Amino acid sequence: MWCNFQKQWPAKTFKDYLWNAARSYTENDFIHWMGMLRGLPGGGEDAYAWLMRIDTKLWARHKMSSRTKCELLLNNLAASFNALILETRDKPIITMLEGIRRLLMRRFARKQAWMHKYSLRICPRILKKL
C-alpha cells in the first residue's frame, strides 16, 4: 500500500500525514490527520479518496483489534519475505525450497548469535520500550 501511495504522492508532507493517521490510536486522531491530508494542495483530496477505498481495518491502527500481537501494517511481512526470496523464486521447486531454507537458517543463526552476545534477559527493543 505504501509503495503505491508514495508513487502517486511522493511529497514528505503526504508521507507524514499518512503515517500519523495510520499510527493513530484513536478515531479522533485518525480523523484529524486524514483531514489534514485531505486539505493538502497538490492532490490531497485524491490521496484521501484513494486511501479511503482501502478498508481501514487493514492499515489504520485505531481499527485494528487490540488483541493483535504484531505492529506490521497490511502485508509488510509477506512483502519482506517475497523480497528475501527473490533470487530463488525462478528456480525449480526443490532448488527454490532449499534456497529458502538456507536463507532462513542463516537469518536464524545470525539472530541467535546476536542474542547470545546480549547479557540481559530482556530483548533490546522491549527494554527500550520499557
Automatic annotation (TrEMBL):
It comes from the Eukaryota. This is Uncharacterized protein. The lineage of its organism: Eukaryota, Viridiplantae, Streptophyta, Embryophyta, Tracheophyta.
